[in-house]
Amino acid sequence: MLRRLTAGLVSRTKKGNAMGHMPSEGRNPASAEIDRLPTLKMLQVINREDAAVPRAVARELPQIAAAVDAIVARLQAGGRLIYVGAGTSGRLGVLDASECPPTFGTPPGLVVALIAGGDRALREAVEGAEDSEEAGRADLALLAVTVHDAVVGLAASGRTPYVLGALAEARTRGALTVSISCNPGAPVAALADIAITPVVGPEVISGSTRMKAGTAQKLVLNMLSTGAMIRLGKTYGNLMVDLQPTNTKLRQRARRIVAEATGLRADQAEALLQSCDGEVKTAIVSHLAGLSPEEARARLQAAGGRVRTALDLKHAKC
User: Which of 25, 67, 226, 233 could cross-link 306 (Cys pair, CB 3.0–4.6 Å)?
Assistant: First the structure.
């Protein structure tokens, strides 16, 4: 049934590319004479159009919140967050997934991304890769997706066959499906349990959805991954306490985070971190709860890795 549904959607997509009305593909009257403008005025036009993007995303906040909560439930059940896209949308998914391990200390397989055409498509256009529904199905199937996973389909047009195929396969396997597109009533929404549709209107350069549509998708992805990680206890307040200090910049950031959370001087925070094997969460709980590093680790484990909960456990025992 799903295969027939998706095949019908893809068929209508191919016709709709020529006949259907898609705001993201329309011509923007505000930039119709942009090639005649002085550079500063040209950039002012672009900037005014960009300013509409956050408002479009704001209108979708209820759907984004529902997606965050649903994704967290899957991750807590042992599942993964999987992004699927093509072109700019696919690259944005890869970017968001690749930032999660250093920022939030997630294992590499927790947040993953598929892009039509594979790794080559990150740097150059792979002609025709996005047009295959079967490729989307096959790539998704290779990940052995289950009911515990959450699959987010990214398509500015909302009609990309690769993404439609992947979402259809995800639904067949019982996974949570979320869509992010910029055209109302797009086919991708019909395959999503939760549809997120920031309608940003026509681009400054007609059809160049790497611009406003790309910015909208990036903002939504920021919210999905960051919101999920906050709910999973990856922050303490607004401090990224689960970061992995794997280079000089991140080691300096880890020291600043510990100093900020504990009130210690930089040198004291550095010494505390060293005594805790570089573990930011352990250092914070050790100092604030007056525990040894070993005791702090045990407290964090009992608290599910949440610093605030670990500190509350201290007060609960007093």
Answer: 233
- From 174, 99, 163, 106, select the one nearest 135 (Cα to Cα): 163
* Closest to 116 (Cα-Cα) out of 98, 150, 93: 93
130 is catalytic: yes
pLDDT-based confidence at residue 20 (cuts at 50, 70, 90):
low
CA–CA gap between residue 96 and residue 249 (Å, rounded): 20
Q: What are phi and psi of 157, to 5 degrees?
A: -75, -30
33 is catalytic: no
- The owner of tokens 């019908």 is 8
Q: Are strands 111-115 and 176-180 parallel, antiparallel or unpaired?
A: unpaired
Separation CA 65–CA 18 (nearest Å)? 34
Q: Tokens 């096959």: give the residue.
A: 138
Question: pLDDT (tens digit, 9 = 90+) per residue, 261-285?
Answer: 999 999 999 999 999 999 999 999 9
pTM: 0.88
Closest CA to 240 of 107, 110, 104, 111: 104
